[in-house]
Amino acid sequence: MNDDTFLRIAGLSVGYGATRVLEGLDLTIGKGEFVALLGASGCGKTTLLRTIAGFVAPSAGVVAVEGRDVTHQPPDRRGMALVFQSYALWPHMTVARNIGYGLKLKGLPRASIDRRVAEIEALLGLEGLGARKPAALSGGQRQRVALGRALAVDPQILLLDEPLSNLDARIRLKVRHEIGALQKRLGITAIIVTHDREEAMAMADRVVIMDAGRIAQQGAPEEVYNRPASPFVAAFMGAENALTLDGLVSGGTVHVAAGSHNATVAVARAGRALASGRLEARFRSEAAEILPSYVIADQTTAALELAGNVEAASYLGGAWRHSVRIGNEVLFADAPHPFAAGATVRLRIPADRLFLFNLPAAAAAPARAPLSPPADLAPRMAAERVLAAS
C-alpha cells in the first residue's frame, strides 16, 4: 500500500447470480480526497459504493481502510457513513432526532447527543429547524438533514449515493457547492456516485468513469474532460459528435485524408496512441464553429472543416444548437445566432478540440479513396488553401 493510500480496493468482483456487475476492480483513494464515481445506469458505480459501505458482499477482492481489511466487516464497523439517494429520514422523528439517531445507537449520553446535534445544525445552516419533521422541510433541507446524520457520527469516509438527484436544478447547483466546500473544510475523505458529469467535475478532486463494471478512465476533472482515453469516455464527457475519417500517422503528425465532405488537414498527434488507418473523430457541439460557405476561415490554426447543410436550429439559452447534415451523419454545433434550415455551411473544429481514436479492426471498413468536397464548395475551399499558403 502506498503511503498516500487511505482506502484500497483490490481485485473486487461482485455478481448477482450469473450476472457480473464488478470484475477485478482496483482503486485507491487518498486521505481527504473527494472522488466521484461517474457513469451511466447499470455501469456498477452504485454497487461499488454499497460494497465499500458493507451492504453488498463481494465474491472476491479486498476493501481496506488504512491497511485494515474491512471486506467482511458489517457497515457499522467500517468507520463510514452513507447518505442515501432517497435520504431515508425517519418521518416520525424531528430533525434533531434524525441527526442524532446514529449517536443514540452508539449509546452516547443525551447531553453529548444534544451538543453534537447543535454543532451539526449550525454547520449545515439548520438552526431553528430542530423541532420540525421531514414533511415540513424543503428538498434541500431534507438533504442537509441526511448529510448531518452521516456527519454526526464523525465517519472516516463519507459515501454519497446520488444525493442531489431529487433536487430541482436551481437547488442542486447551490447544494453541490455547499457539499464540496464542506468536504474541503472538514478534510474528510468522500466518494460520490453520480451520472451527471458536470456535478462530478464541480465537486470532486478525481473523476472515476465506469463502464460495464470496470474503470474506463480516472483522473483530475480537467484531464478526463480534455484528454479522454477512449471514444466511450469522450462521448460520456460530452463529445457526442462522431464521424469516421482516414488518417496517415507520420511522426508527430496525423494527416487526415480528404473525403467526400472534408478537405485534408494535418493535426498534431499530441502524444496520442494512433496508427494509420480508419479513425473515429469526436468533438463537442460547442467546439465547432459554423461558417457560411462563402466566408474565408482563419487559417492560422489547424482545423478540420466539414461541408454540410443545416437541418434545424433550437435556442438553448446563450447559444443556438444546430443539427447539420454531413453526408449520412447528423452532427450538432452551437452558434451565437441561428442559421436558416437548408443553409450550406462549413463546420470548423480546431485540431486541439478534436479527439481522434483508432477504430477497432472489426469496425474499420476498407479505406476510402480520397474524394473532393462538394462541387459548390470546392472552389472556395481551394481558394482558401491558396490564400493560406501565400
UniProtKB/TrEMBL annotation:
Originating species: Ancylobacter oerskovii
UniProt-listed Gene3D superfamilies: P-loop containing nucleotide triphosphate hydrolases
Keywords (A to Z) from UniProt: ATP-binding, Nucleotide-binding, Transport
Similarity-based family: Belongs to the ABC transporter superfamily.
Matching InterPro entries: AAA+_ATPase, ABC_SmlMolc_Importer, ABC_transporter-like_ATP-bd, ABC_transporter-like_CS, Mo/tungstate-bd_C_term_dom, P-loop_NTPase, Transp-assoc_OB_typ2
PROSITE patterns: ABC_TRANSPORTER_1, ABC_TRANSPORTER_2
This protein's name: ABC transporter ATP-binding protein
Domain ABC transporter: residue ranges: 7-237
Pfam family, one: TOBE_2
Highest taxon, organism lineage: Bacteria
Keyword DNA damage among record annotations: no
GO molecular-function terms, A-Z: ATP binding
